Amino acid sequence: MTEATTTTRPVLREINDMTGSLAQRVYQSLKEAIMTLELPPGTVLRKGEICSQLGVSRSPATEALTRLAADGLVDVVPQSATRVSYFSMSEIREGAFLREALELAAVEKVARECTAEQLAQLTRSLRLQTLLVEDEDYAGFYEADEDLHHMIMAFTGYARVGTFAATAWLQVDRARQLLLPTPGRILETVEEHRAVIDAIRAGDPEGARHAMQHHLSKLIVKLEPLEQEQPALFRPLPA
Amino acid sequence: MTEATTTTRPVLREINDMTGSLAQRVYQSLKEAIMTLELPPGTVLRKGEICSQLGVSRSPATEALTRLAADGLVDVVPQSATRVSYFSMSEIREGAFLREALELAAVEKVARECTAEQLAQLTRSLRLQTLLVEDEDYAGFYEADEDLHHMIMAFTGYARVGTFAATAWLQVDRARQLLLPTPGRILETVEEHRAVIDAIRAGDPEGARHAMQHHLSKLIVKLEPLEQEQPALFRPLPA
DNA sequence: CTGAGTCAACTAACATGTTAGTACACCAGG
DNA sequence: CCTGGTGTACTAACATGTTAGTTGACTCAG
């Protein structure tokens, strides 16, 4: 009764229905929970808890934590503790900067050498987005939005660009969970996407670049106030 | 006498004089050997050998290999073997693309908001390069060259940009070991650096961007012929 | 009441034992 | 000679035991 139960709850997704090595699965499970804020910043991750909750030994758990540390999603205090990393506005800005650099380069390249089939896929995605907005299906729109961006990066022909961008984007994406989608913003988003795709269709790299830059600049503006609104999620000590 | 000694040689740098955790040190040691081609592509890395050569147990060795796999420097065949990854021209092009994207964004930002002190540091680096060229100190020049690029990325104020760029650049940097520095090229390099810094000094982001793009484009041209010249180092099977 | 010093409990880091998947050599059959 | 199956040796992946560094609570002097 009086015991102070801390974090021993079914927060982690079951790993049995996942694919890959155990370490890979544990990593995915933890990453998901961190990104959705089910494991909020500051949460202490104990190897023992992870092992018992997911039913694995310490080896895969250790590897998972190592990878999360590399991603910057957890902070390891040697010999002491591992915590979910706090938000940091400077890291969020940095992530946005990196993502912008990569995505602008990508869209520029795609505008220069996009095939008809690829263009058709982009156009199809845009039409889907329009439909989802009409249906007010926010979750679906969110997914279609991400798909479009992934598509553009995939069309560069460089497989790892997407991976890199995703890693760079982690801090931004996590913070984005705190933003509520508004109908007005979503309509704007579709129009911004349209501008990007129009420029790609026109084979206008410079135009595509600017359209994408305009699109991406909208997000960071929304994120900036978070530090004031949710100070608890941000680094208590800017160590 | 007749025994076929494979790879059991003092290829790895001693880890005792290094800092950080054992895993970190093993990682550094292996990475260094791979990047300098002392461990050429295709070399099989056995945990056991690494352990005995460096005098550590399998845990830190495993973590090191995991990180190298994440860097794309080794290919792990599950349950079977871990090999130093082969060169791949498409991966090299991809690395160059990523690095260009990041460095152009960086130099653009720096040109926009560079302080007097930072500009002085850049100018100093350029002067040093001039001296090193006169002395025909190629190794020193190589280092000064890298310093300049790191400096520019550091001046963005974003700590991880450099880390990201370094990771993206790994394949390119490894391939670069095969290029012999020529006096003519080095003189050109200094001039290209000068153009970049001049544009930064002038507060001309667009100009700095183009100067840097011109500079970076020179390298990939030199790398392209390598696939024909050293086919053994490239992927035998484009799996 | 407050501060430094001590110590016990807990953790990550490291070492080692165990399991299971892979690849290669060998052999039987065509 | 070549092909397909089988078995063994070897590896990474996983589990578990051990060590050593950190933290925070407790003690006791000021």
Tally the helices of chain A: what do you get? 10
Q: Strand tally of chain A, please?
A: 2
By oligomeric state, this entry counts as homodimer
Tell me the name of the CATH homologous superfamily of the largest domain in chain A.
GntR ligand-binding domain-like
- Are there runs of chain A of 5+ residues with pLDDT below 50, and where? 1-8
Give me the Rg of chain A, rounded: 20 Å
Helix content of chain A: 55-70%
Question: What topology, given as strand order, has the largest sheet of chain A?
Answer: 1-2
Distance between the termini of chain A: 37 Å
Briefly note the structural class of the backbone of chain A: mainly alpha
> In this structure, how is the largest beta sheet of chain A organized?
2 strands, antiparallel
- Total domain modules of chain A: 2
CATH topology of the largest domain in chain A: Four Helix Bundle (Hemerythrin (Met), subunit A)
Secondary-structure element series of chain A: HHHEEHHHHHHH
- Largest interface, chains and sizes: A-B, 28 and 28 residues
Mean pLDDT reading of chain A = 91
Corresponding CATH architecture of the largest domain in chain A: Up-down Bundle
Shape of chain A: globular
* Strand fraction of chain A: under 5%
CATH class of the largest domain in chain A: Mainly Alpha
Topology record:
The structure is a homodimer of 239-residue chains.
Chain A: H1 22-35, H2 47-54, H3 58-71, E1 74-77, E2 81-84, H4 89-113, H5 116-134, H6 138-154, H7 159-176, H8 183-201, H9 205-223, H10 226-229
Chain A binds a DNA duplex (30 and 30 nucleotides) through residues 21-23, 46-48, 56-60, 62, 65, 76-82.
